[in-house]
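Notes from the 1:1 (GR / supervisor)

We went over the backlog. Supervisor wanted to see one worked example end to end before approving the batch request, so GR pasted a single chain during the call. The sequence is below; no edits were made to it. Supervisor asked that the structure be written out right there so they could see what the output format looks like.
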Amino acid sequence: MTQPWKPSRRDLLRVGGLATAGAAAPSLVGCESQNDSGSGGDKDMQFMFWGSIAEKKAIAAMLTQFKRENPSITVKPLYTPADFDTKLNTLVASNRTPDLTYMNSGMGYRLGEQGKLVNLYPYFDKYPDLANRLPGSYFWWDTNKTYGTQSANESMQLFYSKPAFADAGLDLPPAEASQAWNWDTFVENAYKLTLDQSGRTPDQDGFNPKQIRQFGVSINWWHGTWYPLLLSRGIDFADEAATTTMLDTPEAIQVFQDLADLMYKHRVAPTPTQLGNNAPSTTVQLKTRRLAMVVDGQWTLLDLSQGKLDFGIGVLPSHGTPMTVTMGGATAIFASTKYEQEAVELYLFHDNPEKVDLFSNGLWMPLETKYYTDQASIDLWTKNDAHPPEYRTAVVDYTLKNSKVTFYQKLKNIDAIDKVLTPALQVLQQGKKPAAEVLRPLAQKLNNGLLKGTYPTKAS
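Structure output shown during the call:
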């Protein structure tokens, strides 16, 4: 998930994993039926997941450690970095499901309602760490029925190149919500950070918009970037009943027009054409000074911290109330498992910051509330070279006090909604029409039966 947003990456953002597009996927022929008995007395299980090579290694190390602590259990990793949903659906249809798997929200709710996933709510009393997670991280499909929580938490921030700010003589972006830039200040800084090949900024005579060597900012057009701006203006994607969208309100129209204006009016952000279909990662573009600022997910920290560049983290610009969004898909347990208790123990093990280094290396954020409120618990995963000094206020405090879970994780019928939403926003992103001409007919389509309410946000 270090690459700039592309629609094909949508499901990955619901899980909080790190994708590597184009990597070879494993054959599913070898997925054994769960009716097979373990060899040598072992309880054999399977864990299906996606991710980068770094995440693959981390998951393998986690499973090795789990084996050490549970000698009678053997877990086979099913690394599936491409076409994940298609392959998982194939396994479901053929009754060859793994014991545990990464799961995007749309599929998870569907399989939960079909009774194909373990309801983890009955385990809350036995495992307090499962019961005391961030409220927005749970996936409830009915009263007292949840197929789990996010595999990890993730939130959106502003990443920037410190050398770019130094060269422009600018103060660094604020790292505290209370000091967040307003939109005008954000745009002013983006102007000063945008340079053509002659070093001119967009507000200077002779600026050449066709030969820009450094853009002030890049904001990729998906819900992780525009949704917090809507929330900041005091509106949501839909009303409280989630049956009527708010995308055609004056506030929403202004948010999306502001985003389009960054590219086509102010010329401080790259257009889709300028960005390219195979744009380098956020890390590469900050390091090479192609970009000065990027709005991206917290997971970007993994690559940034290993990229040998001088970067910083700030909070997002605000339209009134500073806001970010959180997200992440689930790890779910299939009801077909022969070893439900053991699967639950692996479930708790795999997202434990004391067991998995994907938290301390910058890819994931923890799920339990204590990791955002208790200093010793915060230090456990943030007191290291991967997390810069401003991380506490720019990410931990910001996430705890100024965030809301993305609507993609809570709305019913989200897959059908997305098929209408994404193409419409692509028209706006491409500068073909002003925001009002795109959002008003889009709202009519969404309000014509596509919005069907939300799933529960708590046990009962």
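Supervisor's comment: The CA atoms of residues 22 and 82 lie 7 Å apart.
Batch request approved.
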